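re: ur question from the group chat, yeah i did fold both. here u go
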Amino acid sequence: MARPSRAFPAVLLGVVLAVGACGSSTPSISDPGEILARAADAIRDVRTVRVEATVEGTIQLDLAGFGPPGDISLTGTKLALDIDVGGDAARLRLEVPAVLGMTIDAILVDGATYTRNSLFGDRYAKEASAGLPIAAADLATGLETLGTWLEQPELAPTKEADTSCGSTSCYQVKLDLTPDEITSLVPLASDLGDGSIVMIVLVEKESLRPAGLTLDISAGGIGELSVGLTLRDWNADLDIAAPASDQVQ
């Protein structure tokens, strides 16, 4: 039961990297690096955000813990994450239908982490936590780091045609990446092996806040995946509370 709860901060950090990859009415911007640099300023004082993700495709995974990995379909996988940076709290819901219909719920609040995995029961496990492993400034710093990374001439990001994102219009910044290139930014991606990654970042034209991110991954060591990320409800009020005592083991 402890293993999923220890993974929760890592999940948050992974999501933060994804948020950092995205980003007042302003004149139209044509340079992709400048779009991300301006987005860093737009989210520097963010208090809350909601992140929603979907995954399609297959991944090579050894669920049993022995023998060669096999192809596991992740189609239908969904994640919803509410982050209250100012309140040092977060709430996560992960659904992985292909893995025995598994769902994971996690709540980080009041210095504790509560985690429930449907494969192990319907009650939460509780353990002490150091708190949310990010601060508001980290999101902006992530964008600044990405902007510097994009200045490498071999990366050559391109600004695609503007697109609709919900009720507003968004910039699109596209990168065609090799695993080595993305590993230089995200060392945890070192297991991608051979293949390619196409990343498209969506940034709202008016607010310059992140709206979404898509990743199309083709990697021999991982599989074929398409990941869609949506970011919304910036600075909305959040009510994240610990589960009732009768729901905790």
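okk and heres the other one u asked abt
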Amino acid sequence: MLNHIATFLLLVSAATAQTRIEGAYNPQTRTFETADKTQRIGGFREGYAPISINNKYAFIDTTGRLLCEPKYDAVEPFNEGIARVENQVEWISKYGFIDKTGMEIVPVIYDDAVDWWTRMTERSDLIWVKRGDTFGMINKAGEFVVPLVFNTIMGFSQGLAAVRKSDKWGFIDSTGKEVIPLIYDEVYGFSYGIARVKKSDKWGFINKTGEDVIPFIYDLVGNSYHDGWIQEKKMGKYGIIDTTGKEVIPCLYDGIATFSEDLASVNIVGKYGYIDRTGKVILPLIYDWAGRFQRGFAPAKIGDKWTFIDKTGKELTPYIYDHVSVFSQTGYASVNIGDKCGKIDRSGRLVVPCIYDGIGGFIEGFATVMKKTEDGVKRGFVDTTGKEVIPCTDYYEIRNFSEGLAFVKKTDKWGAIDTKGKEVIPFIYDLVEKFQNGKAKVTLGNETFYIDKKGERIKK
């Protein structure tokens, strides 16, 4: 209670102290609008937003009230009632945490501390901090739950966090209790209720009580696949086991990829092919490289040339390309002949000839293209027939079409063109965002506002 009173007095006792920011909260944009542009205000989270005053940070609420005096070199958003703050001490960062009263529940003395994004994704009530070479964990009241005794603390996964002391690893729970002893040489987080761990140069898996569920017989194991399968390596060869340790694919291969569209590429002595989920070889190991199947096709290479193959092994085109990408949702893939690129469709037809030095994906029926010439880089647009509908010209930068208009940049200013290349919005803007629902956000000098498709200023 005394700390809360002291914080309040600090804010109001001095006549020169600033306790409130003049301005108003805009509930539609969820921003605090102030006339003083030197006071940079971030987005609100849990009722508070960071504010910079004279290069020092604090927080304000939606009424403009300062939560604390501006005294931090950096702050992070609030998460579950607390926020990480940072100060520079002789160019070295020190971290702590404040609560929504502005009280420092964790003093700003630690060399490192968990960031807000990690806390949000892990959903743990504990905060790890580091001082010197040791880590510990503090609760939201600022009390140590795990003392500064560990050399490493990893993030929580399925309720447990890996910890290291000296050169051995184990796991603690969310109360800080050591639930799996520190006896392992390496560990990874829990997934599907098991964790891969290493002991005596061999890998195996344990459950959340520390029991061995997959024996320590593997030279290497990978992360669990989305379907619960795990890549393994034994006696120099790769295969797949499930989460019970049952061998699904025998260890026969020099490499095995994850399954995609029910097929996985495998290789032996530099030759690639595909197997199904039973381990049956569906496409023979005849390729010099083979990628993942996506939308029915996979890139494949024989010699130094590429094509696409379907799941029967049928070639979409001859082996004529020096590089290929994957097929996009719009049904096109980029291909290269030499250092020039173009586009093919799912029939294998070359719809955009390989004459460009750069090409983007089709959006609203148009793709950005780029040519290098003696006069510099030229940029334009092609349609899905390969026609250069907007010739490559001296645009400094171009954006994809959105709602029938594309922002393009001449010299150092942005404007917009239509699908015929006609300039419909003048080249006067410093920053632009794409059109959405008939309007686009633009910046002109110190002003940021919205315009319609005629270039006229409108309200959001």
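fwiw on the second one: The domain at 395-460 is CATH 2.40.10 (Thrombin, subunit H). Residues 1-16 have pLDDT under 50 and may be disordered. idk if thats what u expected
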